[in-house]
Specification:
By secondary structure, the protein is mainly alpha-helical. It has a single domain, classed as Orthogonal Bundle (Arc Repressor Mutant, subunit A), CATH 1.10.10.60.
């Protein structure tokens, strides 16, 4: 690398093995044209919440949500704080907890660890704590009850 730097200083161009400006190196995807994104806050909020709902079981970051709406992260945070009195990540977590509740009630959950992983919670204990805070019930007990109810239906 030092040789490359020295070469470029001496020759005022890139080293012999560096790609030229005309090479076919893939470029990064550009952000869509700003005119294709909604301009008013209600539309931006609706688009962000739709993106969150559609990606409950996917790994999503705040920058993914902001990019889907076409605004920067700080503007997205302000929008959610103003309209939902929560951060976008809090809304995402609430959606994931609600999805977990639906999965448990439908009898599709087999364990807290599996359910937490499916909904991208890296810590099953944190998932259980959020679930218990929201539904005043321990998810493992609800999973067992759902499984035993399913077993009783099969008899």
């Amino acid at each position: 690398m030092a040789d490359d730097t020295a070469y470029s200083f001496r020759h005022k161009d890139s080293p012999p093995h560096a790609p030229s400006a005309h090479s076919t190196i893939p470029t990064q995807h550009k952000r869509p044209d700003a005119t294709s994104f909604p301009r008013n806050s209600e539309q931006q909020l609706a688009l962000a919440e739709e993106f969150i709902r559609n990606n409950i079981c996917n790994s999503v970051s705040i920058s993914d949500i902001a990019n889907a709406v076409g605004i920067n992260i700080r503007a997205l945070q302000r929008l959610f704080r103003k309209c939902r009195n929560a951060t976008p990540i809090q809304v995402l977590l609430n959606g994931r907890i609600a999805a977990a509740h639906e999965i448990i009630l439908s009898g599709q959950a087999t364990s807290v660890r599996e359910l937490a992983a499916k909904l991208h919670f890296s810590n099953p204990g944190r998932f259980s704590k959020l679930y218990r805070k929201t539904y005043s019930a321990v998810p493992s007990e609800q999973i067992r009850a759902s499984q035993s109810g399913k077993a009783n239906q099969n008899l």
